Amino acid sequence: MAIDDEVEKSDAEAIVKEAEKSAQEMILRSQIAGLISAFLPPWLFPISVAFNEGLNQLTTRRFYTRLQGMRDAMNARLQEVDDSKVDKDWFLSEEFQTMLFESARQVTATADRKKIAMLGNALANGGIAEFSTESRKELFLQIIRDLTPQHIAMLRRLLPDNSMPTEIRWRARPTLAGTDEDLVVLQMFAASGLVTESLKEPNVRVPRISFNSLPSSSEARHAFNEIVKGLREPPKRMFRLSTVGRDFLNFVSFSRIPD
């Protein structure tokens, strides 16, 4: 390994370790276990002290495990980028501190490894030159908070096909019909601006009628009924990844989607 590579690696690790230290100090002051034990019924008061101590150890251990996952994702993302493209001063900024504390709060409320990795990626990308002008960093972080495994699975369905040529990949991205339980997830994405919504009119099938002779009354009646039947079908709600959704997925390193 070259000396320059070792320097770059140590710089990235220093940034990540400082972030972890700040998050650890925050959680140790938060007294999460004390808050939970406050909801114990009065008749459990005699054992509340022992309960609080055990719960505090459990929540702290789980927090550190999740925090380590976020730190690993952040470190891995920084290792992927040339050191010259990392703004180390940003990691000392108030914006980074705000995002770090929000990310630490989120890891206390999720065990989803994909979400934890997305948080770590977002923290790393905030200081990378590619995203230096991105003004929606905190907004994207808030969107991560509301994602469930069902949402993450749906995001994968919305991704463009990587096997397609780069120049047409974005234009050829999937369009999904919002039906059943998928509709709830897609509507949430639409509210966040991650997808665009459109209506697709039903395909009305017009029966073929010979014009060589006048149709019989039964043929005309059948054609009319078929048209009316088609018109009664409601339009389908169609959803497609928006440019905001593309930028969000790029920022959290969920997928690299070209323009």
Structure report:
This protein has eleven helices and three strands, in the order ααααααααβαβαβα. By secondary structure, it is mainly α. The protein folds into two domains: 3-145, no CATH class; 167-245, no CATH class. Strands 1-3-2 form a three-stranded antiparallel sheet. Helix 1 (3-30) packs antiparallel against helix 3 (48-80) and helix 1 packs across helix 4. The chain is elongated, with a radius of gyration of 26 Å. The chain starts with a helix and ends in an 8-residue tail after the last helix.
Structure summary:
The chain has helices at 3-30, 32-37, 48-80, 94-107, 113-125, 137-145, 149-158, 166-169, 180-192, 217-232, 243-251, and strands at residues 175-177, 195-200, 236-241. With 259 residues, it is mainly α.
Give the topology.
Blueprint: H1 3-30, H2 32-37, H3 48-80, H4 94-107, H5 113-125, H6 137-145, H7 149-158, H8 166-169, E1 175-177, H9 180-192, E2 195-200, H10 217-232, E3 236-241, H11 243-251
Antiparallel strand pairs: 1-3, 2-3
Helix pairs in contact: 1-3, 1-4, 3-5, 4-5, 4-6, 5-6
